[in-house]
């Protein structure tokens, strides 16, 4: 009878241990599922943000070319109407003047800014790479 009680005691311990292990596995499975659900939600959110970024980039690329001006002006220009040119006209004038060899695409990039600076140096203007009023006034002569 004592042996039976010992066997019964050992079986009880083994069964309760298995139940605890099973409960732990269920808990881990639940946590893993929760994490997977959260990861899926974050992936979805990231995809939506990437789509928003792409949409905004497309909108920026499709904006009309803005005229470029700055505070660069002489006393003679103060009395005249404001002078500004579109980026395409700036590139065209720089090309006609022999300072720009790139594509006339309406984008003031590194090559266009370099051409503006070189033009400004040669014309005695502040070489800042910005086509302000004085620079545009001098560039305008190359559009005719």
Describe the structure.
It is a single chain. This protein is mainly α and 144 residues long. The chain contains 5 helices and no strands. Mean pLDDT is 79; it is low at 66-81. Helix content is 67%, strand content 0%. It has 2 domains: 1-63; 75-140, PGBD-like superfamily/PGBD (Muramoyl-pentapeptide Carboxypeptidase, domain 1, Orthogonal Bundle). It has helices at residues 2-61, 75-79, 87-96, 110-122, 133-140.
Identify the CATH class of the largest domain: Mainly Alpha
- Radius of gyration based on Cα positions: 37 Å
Number of strands: 0
Q: What is the strand content?
A: under 5%
Structural class: mainly alpha
* Tally of contiguous helical segments: 5
In round numbers, the mean pLDDT is 79
Give me the strand/helix succession.
HHHHH
Q: How would the blueprint of this fold be written?
A:
Blueprint: H1 2-61, H2 75-79, H3 87-96, H4 110-122, H5 133-140
In short:
This protein is mostly helical and 144 residues long. It has five helices and no strands. The radius of gyration is 37 Å and the shape is rod-shaped.
Fill in the keyword field for this structure:
144 residues; mainly alpha; Muramoyl-pentapeptide Carboxypeptidase, domain 1; 0% strand
């Amino acid at each position: 009878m004592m042996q039976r009680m010992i066997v019964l005691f050992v079986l009880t311990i083994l069964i309760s241990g298995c139940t605890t292990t099973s409960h732990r596995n269920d808990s881990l499975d639940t946590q893993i599922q929760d994490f997977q659900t959260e990861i899926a939600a974050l992936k979805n959110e990231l995809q939506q943000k990437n789509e928003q970024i792409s949409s905004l980039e497309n909108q920026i690329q499709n904006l009309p070319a803005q005229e470029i001006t700055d505070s660069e002006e002489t006393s003679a220009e103060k009395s005249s109407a404001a002078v500004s040119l579109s980026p395409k006209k700036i590139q065209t004038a720089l090309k006609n003047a022999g300072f720009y060899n790139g594509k006339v695409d309406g984008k003031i990039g590194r090559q266009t800014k370099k051409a503006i600076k070189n033009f400004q140096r040669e014309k005695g203007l502040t070489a800042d790479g910005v086509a302000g009023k004085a620079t545009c006034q001098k560039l305008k002569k190359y559009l005719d």
